[in-house]
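Replying to the earlier thread about multi-chain prediction with a worked example.

Input:
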Amino acid sequence: MSSEVLLDNPHEMGCTGLPHRKILMWAFLASDCMFFGSLISTYLVYRGHSTDHPLPEDIFDIPLTSTSSFVLLLSSWLMVLALSAIQKGKLWEFRLWTLGVAFFGSIFLGFQVYEFTHFVHSGLTLKQNLFGSTFFVLTGTHGCHVAIGVLWLMSLFFYSFIGGVTKERSLDVEIAGLYWHFVDIVWIVIFTAVYLLEYII
Amino acid sequence: MHIEPVKEKGFYDFLGRQVEPKGLIGWLTTVDHKRIGILYAVTALLWFLVGGIEALAIRSQLAMANLRLYSAETYNQMFTMHATTMIFLVVMPLAAGFFNYMVPLMVGARDVAFPRLNAFSYWMFLFGSLLINASWLFNAAPNGSWVGYPPLSLFQYSQGHNYDFWLIGLQVLGIASVAASLNFITTIINMRAPGMTMMRLPVFVWMTLVTNFLVVLAFPVITIALAELMFDRTYATNFFNPMKGGLPIWWQHLFWVFGHPEVYILILPPMGIVSEVLPVFARKPLFGYPLVVGSGMGIGFMGFTVWAHHMFASGMGNIANAAFALTTMTIAIPTGVKIINWVGTLWKGQIRMRTPMLFALGFIYQFMMGGFSGLMHANAAHDAQQHDTYFIVAHFHYVLIGGALFGLWSGIYYWYPKITGRMMNEARGHAAFWFLFIGFNTTFFPMHWLGLNGMPRRIYSYSHAQGWDQLNLLCTVGAFTMAVAVLLLFTDMFWLSLKYGEKAGGDPWDGRTLEWSIPSPPPVYNFEEIPTVKALDDFWITKHPELLHHEEDSAAHAAGAGHGAHHVHHDDHGIHMPGGSWFPMFASAGFAIGAWGLVHSGGMYHIKEAIQPALDAAAKAGVSWDQLVSTAQTVVSSKTPDAQNILNVVNAESVLKLQACYNGVKTAIVGGVLGVLGIFLWALEPIGGYYIHKEKEEHAGE
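Result:
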C-alpha cells in the first residue's frame, strides 16, 4: 500500500475544512435517527394494544437491564479514551481502550441474548403478541447496530497491528466513535421509552 | 498528456485492476461519475420502455367497455408494476443520472466525494430493479398497488411471493438511494470549487441537495415499514395484523410519511432542471434566485408535514383532516413562488424556442394544472368525493408526467450535447415534444371528468351502462400518441443524433454554468484546473466580464482566500484519478443474492404453523427433516399419502414450500456474508489509479 496515496490523498478534505467522511457519517446518523424514530414510534403507538400476555410488567427485569445499560454507557467513555490515545499517537493505549469498548459492547450483547432467551422461555415470542413483535424488532435492531460496532472496532484493533491505524489516520477511529456514541444515545432513548416508561405511566 | 500509474504492490494486484478504464471491464469497474451517470440514465430509460409498455397494456384493457384482453389478476400486476417501475426505476434513477453527471461539473469538482460508494449505489439499483422485475418470470409480480396496504398484503390474504418481491426489491432500491444521497450531500457541501459559495450554486445543484436530504430522511421510514410488513409475512409478527390488535392504518401513516416526501423527491430535480434551462433560453438570469432556492427548501421541509392528506378517507377525524388540509394548502405557496419566478425569468427575455425550452415551458403549464387539481383535493371535503377515483389518477399524472417527466426530457435535450458531444436534431425534438404534449393532455385531461363521474382507480373493466366509453377510448388514443413521442426520443437519442448529429462544441447553448466551460464530452478529469468562481452564473460572467459587480468581486476574493488549501496537491504530481474497483459490484451482487434468498423465505413461519401437527407427528415417529422432505416429494408426485400417514398431499406441498423457505434463509445468509466481505475488501483496497500530466505546450495550444 502506497503511503504517498494515503497521506497526500487529494480526495479526502473538502472546502468546508471538514473531511468528507465526517460529513457522510453525520448525514448517515441523521438518517439512522429517522430509522430508530420509526421503530420507537411503532413501539409507542402499539403500547397497550397487545391482546395476549405476557405484557411488559410480567417479564421486565429493570435492575438487570439497568446494569447492561450502564455497561454500554461506560463503553462510550472508553471510546473517548481510545480516540484521545490514537490522536496522541499512543498505539498501545489505543489498542487497550478499543478492546475495552468492544468487550463492554459484547457484555451488553450477552445481556441481551440472556434477556431474549429468558423472555422466549417466559412465552414472549415474535408472534405471541404485539408487545413481542415490537419489542424484539426494536431492541433486536439496536442489538444489530451494537454488533456491527463491535465488528468495526475489532477490525480497527486488528488493523492496528499491520500499521493501518496511526496518529495521522485517527479519523478512522473518530468516525467509528461517532457511530458508537450514536448507538449508545439511541439506547438511552430506547431504555427510557421501553423499560422506564412502565414505571412512570 | 501522459499517464503515470500510482505505484503500489500487494494483495490487490491479482485482481488485474486497470490503470486507465477501457472496454467492458472499464465500465464494470468504473468509479467515474460521468460513466456512472450514463449507466443510471440508460438503465432508467430501458425501464421507462418497460413501464410504458405496462401503461399501454393498462390503457388497452380500458379502451372499451367489458374488454377481457388478459386476466384481472394480470391487470393487478400490470398497474402495480407500472407505478413501482415509473417511480423507483425511472424518475428517481433518471434524476440520479443527472445528479451523477452534472453535480460535480456544476460545482467545479473532479468527481463525487466517494466514487466507489457511487458505483455501489448504481449496482444496488440495477440488481434491485432486476430483482423486482424477475417476479414476472415466476408469474408473481407484485399485485396490490404500489402502496401495498395491509391487511391485503399480509400473508393470510396474499400467499404468493408477489409481495415478497415487492418488499425486498424496494428495500434493495432504498439502500441504493440512501447510499447515493449521502454521497451527493457530501459532494455538494464539501467539494465546491474555490469561491463557489452556497448562494452561488446553480439551482439544479440546490434542488439536488434538498432532494437528497429528503431521501436520507424519508427512506428510513419506508425501510422500517417494509421490514415490519416483511416480518409479518415471514416471521408471523403482528405489526399490521388486526386479529392481534395490530393497526393496518399504522402502515398507511408510515408509508405516507415516506410517500409524500417521495413525491417531492420526484419533482424537485426536474424543477432544478427547468430553473437551469429557462435562463439559458430566455437569455436572462433566473428571476429571484434566492427565492427559488428558499422555496425549494420550504417545499422540502413542508413535504414532511402533509402526509395524512393521502388518508382523508380513512376516518382520521375532523381535526386531523382540517390540520392536514391546511398544511397541504400552505405548500402551494412556495410552489407558487417558484412558478412566478419562472414566469418572471421569461418576462422580456429574448426567448429561443429550442427543444429543451419547449419541454421546460410544457413543464410550467402542466405542473401548474396538476397543482390546481391538487389544491382541489387538499380540501378534505372535496377529497371525500375524489379519493381513489380517476380524478386522482389525472392529478398525479399531471404532476409526474406533465411535471417530472417533461422536466427530465428537457434535461435530456439540454445536456445531451454535453454528454455525447453531439447536438440532438431540432425538427425531431419539436415533433417529439408535440406528440408528447398532445398525447399527454389527450390521455389525462379526460380522466378528470371520468373521476368526477365516479370511475374508480385500479378498476379492471366497466360496463356500457356507466357511460365512460368515449372518454376512455380517447385516453387510450392519447396514450398511444405518447408512445410515438417516446419512440422518436429513443431513435434520436440512441441512434440518429448519436451517429449523425452535428458536433456540439463545449458551449452550444451559450450557457451560464460551469459545465459549459469545458469540452463536450468532458475529459475524464473534468477540469484541467479547478476553476475559481467569482459570481452566480460564473461562466456567463466570464464571457461578459463587464457584468461583474465590484462588491461581488471582492466578496469572491475574500471567499476564495479561505478555499485555497484543498487543491495545491496537484501541482507536482499532475491530476490524480482514482483506480477502478470490482468491489462495489461484488458487494452489491452479494446483497442481491441475499435479497433473492429473503424473497424466497416469505411466509416461512405461517407455513410452518399451518403444518405444525404434521411436524409434531413426524418428530414423534422419529422422522428427520431430510426424510420428511423426501417423503413429501414422493407424496406430491404420487398424489397419495405416505404409509405412516403423517403427510397428506396438502401437507406435503407445505413441507416442500417450507424447505424452499429454509433454502431461502440459507441463500440470504450466504449473500449477506458475501456482501459484507465485499465491503471489507473495498475498505482495505488502496485508491490506486494514475496521475495525468498535462504538458506545458498542450496548455498553450488549448
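Chain B has 24 helices and three strands.

Feel free to reuse this layout for your own posts.
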